[in-house]
Amino acid sequence: MLDIRKRTGWIFFGAMMAQILLISAQVQTKSGVRALQAVTFEVFSRIEFGTASVVSGVRRVWGGYIGLRGAKAENEALRQRVAALEVQLQQEHALAMRSERLQMLLDMKTHGTVPTLAAEVIAGNPDPVMRTVTINRGSGDGVSADMAVIAPGGVVGRIIGPVVRHAARVQLLIDRNAAAGAMMERTRAGGMVVGVEANPPLRMELVSNLTDVKPGDAVVASGVDGIFPKGYLIGRVERVDRGTGLYRTISVRPGVEFSSLEEVLVVLSSPRPASRDEDVK
Amino acid sequence: MKSAAVILAIVAALALQTTLSGLLAGGAIAVNLVLVAVVYLALSYGAVTGLMTGMIGGLAQDALAGGIVGLGGMSKTLIGFLVGVLGAQFNLSTTLPRLVMFVAATFVHQIVFEGLHAMIGGRHFSPQWTATFLQALANGLIGVTAFLLVENGPGALQRRRMRRASLGKRRY
What is the dihedral of CA B37, B39, B40, B42, to 10 degrees? Predict the structure, then answer.
């Protein structure tokens, strides 16, 4: 049998609560609402607030989870889209650059005094010692050996044999076996430009120590070799040293960026035998 | 039997209280016989009886007074509980501790009652200490007198009869 004397605290608590409720039902708050109503509303509003907070939190977490899953898929799709756009952008950029280069070639071809044929570099050389490239023009296009090859930046090199019907090999001017008759544009001092295994990869020889040469001077083809048309830029003097003998040691930076050579012009005029250039002093 | 005694005590206290209130309306001393009955029963029967007596007596007193029903009930429930608990913890079987308990209970009851009134009514808490002190003394005197009467009255008669009977046997 339950002994209520052992539950004194609970009985006291119940009696007090009952009387609190009784009092609350009688008195009114300042706003005119009964205290019991106000307290009940307050308590239940807290409970409702807590319940709403819990529900809202769960919904937010759940929504975040679902959104996260959607965001992951969307993120993946956007990454792919960005990658595709980047590729497209690079293609567009390459097309623009190509158009610009072709425009420069066209200008050069139009305003040049020598007949030329546009060609595209289709291959490099697998042998790093031999600095040559292959173009898509050959004997079928009128290309023959020892024809000069130029670009908007300046002299590129010359055609070397054998020349096939639709392709030809170009020896670049920076090849260590290549050479071209050259002269200083400012002083008209003549010499010879050869390819070297150095940086810069061109060296001008046979220029007297007495000749006035300054860094930045333009070096152009002199035409004495019978291959390269006179006046076309070869490069610019980068370093000038007084040689041990009669001649200076002149390092020349090529006008053509050989590492990014894509389109060139083949000078179709037949090469003539090398002769002494009267301009060379 | 005990329940009947409790109810009878409360009814008697209420009846006397209402009667005395009429007689002492203009006096300085205002006793609270219901509170005395609550303390008395709590000391006699424990916390549960005390708080139940306090609740019933207080609610009845509130209902008769015409104020907010529950204020007196709460304060007397608290008094009945506290006195019952203290009575179980300490030896309150002599007069002086009982007197102290009645006086203290009156003060606590007055503070709680006035505090609840102030809280609900939105007014300042300002108990009348002098009147409370006088009421506490009156309640204490009435309470300990009741204890003396109940404890010593029937016992004294019985002891007197037993002593007379003993003396008669010795003489004869």
Answer: 120
